[in-house]
Amino acid sequence: MTQPRRRPSRLDDDEYPAYTTGLAAELLGVQPAFLRSLDAAGLLTPNRSTGGQRRYSRAELALALRVRELLDANMPLLAAIRIVSLERQLEAAHRRIVSLESLVSERLDRS
Among the four residues 7, 42, 48, 57, which has the most C-beta atoms within 10 Å? Predict the structure, then answer.
């Protein structure tokens, strides 16, 4: 017997800002001030609720977790933030390269 298909939820979206500062901090095992410091450093850009409360996405929690891992390995905070920022840029560049390679391949196939 097959399971009925589950409708995608906004919570399935890695970019959906579902987590308050308190919940995000609890999930990551950090203090809320840690998340605020990453926001102040420009690494995280949480959305704001209508009341002004920060809301974090799963993608932002993953970035914060990566910073936490680097800090746990005795990396200074500013260095950890820079590393994570560069890792994000590298991932974006890789995605762009794959996209461009696909586009070139499609155009070559047409000619």
Answer: 57
Residues 71-92: tens digit of each pLDDT: 999 999 999 999 999 999 999 9
The reported pTM is 0.77
Helix (H, G, I), strand (E, B) or coil at 55: strand
Strand residue runs (E) in the chain: 19-20, 47-48, 54-56
Bridge-based pairing of strands 19-20 and 54-56 is antiparallel
Residue type for position 111: S
The CA distance from 32 to 39, in Å, is: 11
Distance CA 64, CA 39 (A): 10
